[in-house]
Every structure is written in C-alpha cells, then in structure tokens.
Amino acid sequence: MEIRSFRTGLSLIWTYDWVPLPVMYPQLIFLAVHCYFIVCIFCRQFIITPTAANYTVVDLYFPIMTSVEFICYVGWMKVAMELLNPFGEDDDDFDCNFLLDRNLTISLTAVDNAFDDIPDISPDMFWHDTVSPLYSQEMAGKHVNFYVGSANRAE
C-alpha cells in the first residue's frame, strides 16, 4: 500500500513536470514588475505645492532605495524565469548529459565487466563499534509514516 502511494506521488510530480507553465504567467509577472516601478518613479517624488514655503526650489534627487528595490525584484524575476526550465540546454542550466552518461557508463561497467570483482572484506576503524540511535527510547516504538503529505487529514 505504501509503495502504491509513493508511486502515485512520483507520478504526480512527473505530471507537474510534464505540464508546462503557461506563457501568460511569466509575461504577466514581467509586466507587473516593470509597471510597479514605473508607478514608483512617479509616486515617490517630492511634490512642491503652491503653498510651500520655498516654492521656487526644485528638489532633484536619485531614488536610491527604489533603484535597489528594482534591482532586487528584477534579479528575483530573472532567477524565476531560469527556474522554469532548469534542465534546458542553455549555459546556465544544469549539465544533465554529463551526469547521465557517467552514471550509465558506471552502471554498465558494473553489470558487464565487474560482476566478478568482489572486494575483500576487511575490518575498518568502525568494525567493532556499536551505533547508538539518534532518537530516544520513547520514539523507538512510535511508527511514523514519512510518505504521507502534510495535507493528508485536510477535509
């Protein structure tokens, strides 16, 4: 039963990977971030009203914090855009071909060529040690199902 629920969870993850994110969502985020900062440029300015004490002086400044906020949001947005397809073929993506080729080569070597090369068993420095469990005795008898999600009991 647990294997079936684990397999169902894996197929759900595979389905999430198989169905791509619609193109509209990244475009909407891109437009929202840029429109927000265009509005911020105008809204965070100092406005001189006719009733001000010094009506002729124009206070010109560079919006430093708005610029820092813009850089952070745009950087965050660029990272999110890259994470849409982390296993692609760009220079910034994960190099999965090397990992797959290496693992396939080692697996085939182990099955085809090295099936008779059994290593010698020799005692190491931990041979006679007893390993103490990392949990307490009261937790030893408690059964925990690790593959049940956090929303299992939600109704």
From TrEMBL:
One of its GO terms (molecular function) is chloride channel activity. Its main location: membrane. One of its GO terms (cellular component) is plasma membrane. It holds the Pfam family Bestrophin. Coiled coil: none annotated. It comes from the Eukaryota. InterPro entries: Bestrophin, Bestrophin-like. Keywords: Cell membrane, Chloride, Chloride channel, Ion channel, Ion transport, Membrane, Transmembrane, Transmembrane helix, Transport. The keyword Disulfide bond does not apply. The chain crosses the membrane at residues 28-48, 60-76. It is a multi-pass membrane protein. It is found in: Cell membrane; Membrane. Belongs to the anion channel-forming bestrophin (TC 1.A.46) family. Calcium-sensitive chloride channel subfamily. Forms chloride channels. This is Bestrophin homolog. The lineage of its organism: Eukaryota, Metazoa, Ecdysozoa, Nematoda, Chromadorea.
